[in-house]
Amino acid sequence: MGTHPSVRRATAHQQQTPVHTWILAGAGQALYGATFFAAVRSTGVAIGTVVALGSAPLITGALSFVMNRSRPSLRWLGATALAIVGISMIVSSDASSDVSTTGILFALCAGLGYAIFALASKNLVETGMPSNAIMTRVFALAALFLSPALFFVDVSWVASSSGVALALWLGVVTVALAYWAYAHGLKQLKPREATMLTLFEPAVATVLGAVVLDERPSTIAWIGIAVVAAAILIETLTADGIRIVPLAEHPHLWREAARWSFDAWRHEFPHDTEQTYLDQYARAANPSGRLIEVYAALERNESLRGLATLVDDDDLPGATEPGPWLAAVFVHEGVRRSGIGSRLVSHVTQRARELGHRELYLYTEHAVDWYRGKGWTVVRETTLNDLPHTVMRRDL
Fold first, then answer.
1. b or e along 341-362 (b: 16 or more beta carbons within 10 Å of the residue's beta carbon)?
2. CA distance linking residue 352 with residue 68, whole number of Å
3. H-type helices in 99-199, by residue range?
4. Are 43 and 93 contained in the same domain?
5. Within 10 A of 326 (CB to CB), how many other CB atoms are there?
6. CA distances from 88 to 47, 48, 75, 144, 167 (A)
7. Distance (Å, rounded) from C-alpha 110 to C-alpha 33?
8. Dist CA 67 CA 371 (whole Å)
9. Which residue, of 20, 220, 282, 297, has the greatest Cβ tally within 10 A?
10. DSSP secondary structure code for residue 172 in this structure
């Protein structure tokens, strides 16, 4: 993306989150709910759970790669495989489980539905809308999709006192509280990571069965629980450790950042030098009332891995868009397709929202499809120094 920060104050107007994102989230949750219970009925709780929850993170990872070119890490693949092994040990300890082909297909559909729900929900939480409002709307849509089933099932049990208590428990605790927490987690996690962590559910259910219901899990089941716990620890304790911070707080990295930026954009801004960028970083460190904020992606050892800028005016000749602009997004070639670019874009987007802006703009030479996958829409085509570019907008 060829971008160059100078500065101008912005105004904006709000547009709605794409309707298809809401529909996908609601439809995914509806598909998951309907087919999961069908799987449980057909092939049992144990097999239905392990196939549905075990397939969900794998399907999510595959869809993330296809849609967003977000390649899963070997760590995530290893932790997910280990968790699935652990769940398999838990369910294999139940000799009463019968495998049904139809049930397996239903469970795989449930995994697909959960993957769609997770990916769409991630896009929704990145808009900054409160988690409770998002989940309320998504589950209302899911209920609407499933409402025709009311004509074919017996719902008289709801009228009893025990039915009311059960409905309240399921609605308040297992749906409202659980998915409110899930949506909050999605703000910091990738969808495939969030679905992988849900693999802990069967292990927790087994432990609760032993503690609350006085069940007696076998030794294999306990070993499976330990394996799942180990997988979760691998996923959470060996995370990449990337953090997004203001570059102004790390002046020792300015020279390296300026060199990267100059090399990346000199074909678009041939008159710039490394000093041009150093001057910009100095202005960001000493605000003068004009918007320019530069953010860096750092590893635990403080190594620079990526950059992104929020700026009032991105120096595009003839631009009439009000701004502000997402500018100069760059990720070191050694860590590309690891999600760092997405995190930088999300961070700048959230920052623009915090500043009260209703939309954000960018222009890009080659990354139109990548930004489309993150909710950006094309505004118009233009040129910069005789190079074709596309102006895009993200509604906040």
1. bbbbbbbbbbbbbeeebebbbb
2. 22
3. 101-125, 131-146, 161-168, 178-186, 191-197
4. yes
5. 27
6. 8, 11, 20, 34, 31
7. 7
8. 11
9. 297
10. I
Domain end call among 237, 255, 279: 237
pLDDT at residue 101, as a whole number: 76
Contact between residue 51 and residue 111 where contact means Cβ atoms under 8 Å apart: yes
CA dihedral 85, 78, 103, 165 (to 10 degrees): 80
Are 126 and 162 in a shared domain?
yes
With respect to residue 212, please indicate whether it lies within any of the assigned structural domains: yes
344, 293 Cβ separation under 8 angstroms: no
**Pair 55, 204 in one domain:** yes
Cα separation, 160 vs 183, in Å, equals 32
pLDDT tens sequence across 324-341: 999 999 998 877 777 788
**Are 370 and 295 in a shared domain?**
yes
Tell me the whole-structure pTM to 2 decimals.
0.54
Q: Which domain holds residue 59?
A: 19-237
Q: Tell me the backbone φ, ψ of residue 90, rounded to 5 degrees.
A: -65, -50
Q: What is the tens place of the pLDDT at every residue in 236-295?
A: 555 556 788 899 989 999 999 999 999 998 888 888 999 999 999 999 998 877 899 999
| 155 and 39 belong to one structural domain | yes
DSSP 8-state code for residue 18: P
Query: 309, 166, 153, 303: which is closest to 240 by C-alpha?
Result: 303
Tell how far CA 25 is from the center of its chain. 13
Tell whether 8 is covered by a domain. Answer: no
Residue 229 makes CB contacts below 8 A (sequence gap 6+) with 86, 200, 203
388: which strand partners? 383
Same domain? 60 vs 186: yes
H-helix or E-strand spanning residue 151: none
